[in-house]
Please model this.
Amino acid sequence: MKIGYRIVLIILFLSVVLLAEQIGTSLTYKNGIDAYRKGQYELAIQEFETILSNDLESSEIYYNLGNAFYRSGNIAGAVWAYESCLKIYPTHNNANYNIKIANLNVVDKMDLPEPPFYLKWYLSVKKRFIPSTWINISLFTLLLNATLIGIIRMTSLSILGMLQGIIIPVLLGSLFLTLHSAWTENSYDLGIIYATDVEVRSEPNVYSIRLFEVHEGLKVAVNQRKNEWIEIELLDGKTGWIENKHIRLIQ
Amino acid sequence: MIRIVIIFLLTTLIWADGTIKVDVDRRRINEGDSVLLTITASNMSEDPVINLPKMVDFKVVSGPSQSSSTNVQFINGKMTKKNTIAYTWTLIPIKTGQLSVPALKIKTDKRFFTSSPITIIVSKRGPSQTGIKPQFFIEADVDNRKPYRGQQVTLSYILYTQVDVSSFDDELPKFRGFWTEELFAAKNLQLMEVQKNDSKYYAATIKKMALFPTQSGKLIIDPLTAVIGIRDKQQRWNDFSLFGPPSKKYTIATNRIELNVQPIPNRTTGKVSAIVGNWNIRSSISTTNLIQDEAVTFQIKINGTGNIQTVDLSNISFPNELEVFEPKIQTKGNPLRDKIGGEKTFEWVLIPRYPGVIIIPEFQLNYFDTDKQLWLTKSTMPHRLKASPNEKAAISPIGLSKEEVTLVGKDIRFIDESAPKWRKKNRGLITRTSLTLLFLSAMIFAFPRVHHYSRQRMDKTAGGRQAKQALKFATKILKTGSESQEKTYTEIFKAVTTYINMKTGASRVEYSTDEIMKILGMHVQSDKFYEIEDILYRGETIRFSPVSSKGIHADNLKVITLLKQIDENWV
Model:
């Protein structure tokens, strides 16, 4: 009886803690929205960043944080927040629109050759969903296929065999996209240059050769880290080292 | 005379083997003249070590220059040898009045010697000058002693001489607190006769400088020093030199000048700049009708007088519709005028990236006019550009795609006020939905196999399960009960038959008592079942030739008990 009583108390306590945490998060978020509405963008940024520092995220908070950064004139922050929003919700229309506006203010622009149409189509399909959604799509297709196999065994309807002929290529395609998407997600980190002008060096120290310069808001890939330095790679393939204080990684 | 003797004694240090003498060539000079400080060491075994002390009243212009001599004499067959070494410095007084060369500390032959201070009287130059009037001197003068910060001050150096000057070598001071530019430097002295300080001199401008004070307050222009060569007068008819009569070098300096630089007054409108002088501004454009993405040249010209280096327009803003390249800046000075100034041209290449009418606004130049002592603003004219669309432009050269170009000038979309769907950061790729789908897929895949397997298993164990249920079914039949004897014994027979059928897997409708006993004898390892034989025979009798029996209920209960015992011992 005593043990049962204790377990109930612990469950109640944990529930209250979780509830209080949720209420606190909602309140901070509301304060951020109110501050934004009043034009207090720095305060709004502070409130949204507090929630993010508590290990919570959502596409809405990243989107609103991006807007607050943009309004306060922090273009690098805006690009970072919109990129973070699109990472968890790639088809967020407003974030897709706003990031284009924010990128107009980014100094560095990369003109890359247009990929062939099939590659462009494939990449746009892959980009539509995040890796976990691709996993779910693959599993759902697998479920459909399994159901179909079951029905075929029980009924032996020839039309179901034709249907299976469609589902299996879809399943293989979604599996390929899932693997590619997950590999892309885990193979390298992305970050946004967070300082106005950053000198990119050939080695991770200030005495090495200055290779080129990057500016705030530029999206770069992170190849490797060494102490306080990060090796970045630009879209055009250029690589070099910058101090990690000049970059904010996309979570 | 007595004073000179005392000074000589004081400045001459004598000890056992040699002497040290500290002296100057003149003790009464004019402002700008130099004195030679000489230290002479005679009959010393080693060279003296001299550290000049900090001169408060003088500036050391040159030195030390070193000279030595040896004098050998034979008197009455006895030889005497005298070694002399002399060090000379040139000093220029930095003020007028009674000045002092401080005491000098000299080390030689492992001994220290200290001289006495030397007093030199420096007279101010000018009409009220007393004593000997100088034969040559340089004078520095400025055109304005109370300029505004940034206003030009013209500094002139003029040489006055009554003697023949053979050479002239000047050294400019460091103009601290000024931005400077040389206006004139004489290659040859153009001497003109002038009256100066009630005397006749020949004067020549040797240098002119434009000074722009970079700070307000009291600023000092330090003296210029010059080494001037004066040709000696020919003393005798036979003094002939191939290079002309010999000349002697003198070091002279100009007077110090003090400026009181006034700060530029504030402007009520707040439109101020660092530009001082008198300026004009005008703009021009190569064309106003053009095609989108076509370059156009825009020029702003500023001309006037003042420090042209402070004139800057390179950071002005153009409309966003224009791509602006770094300006080309050209400066032309006014070399023939005393007032620094000229024309500065800023030239931009502009490319309209959008079709339509683009207005280049007026640009303002704010400057302080020192003549009028007023802040003034002058502006260019606005220009109206008409850019017709460029149909060929798919992607603009500055890297903006067509889509991006349409976004220029637009604002971001409003914030999302819907309730957020919170999730933990950096969660894994596998979600609860994924696990559910995986489980369902596995279930559906496994279902036909599981179903087949369970069916087979059911079929296999059907007999056993029937046997287990045999007692239950038989008891159920017996418990239904009946009031008639015939029906009761029929039920007993039915129960026993059902029991045996289920236990053996047979499906007979009826057994005889002997057959029942035979089966029980085969499967039951107990004697108890023999008691059932009597009940079955009684039942047969009553069923086929009805006779009265009082023990039907007891038989019914007995069969239930016996079937339980049989079931327990069934093998």
